[in-house]
Amino acid sequence: MNPIDRLRAISLVEGVSFLILLTCSVLKRTNDWETGVQIMGPVHGVLFVLYVICAIDLGKKLAWPRERTVKVVLAAIPPFAPFFVERWLRTQKAPAGA
Asked: Hey, what's the torsion of the CAs at 81, 87, 93, 97, to 10 degrees?
């Protein structure tokens, strides 16, 4: 799998995990259901770290300006931004030899 496709896949999974975590957080506050947050918190944390690592790796491989890499990394924070990153990555070309 080339680095662009890898980050695209992780973007989607990380974005979905964040939405699930937010839903679990609401359920925790409204229904005293803590199990969802206890499970999804660590899962989302691992996916978030993986997203950041893959974004930095891709930025290096494509020789992105630092600003672009920072923007892509910061896009992991707002709930729907990883979906926009995934869509934008479809327009990027894979590095030679990947």
From this structure: 70
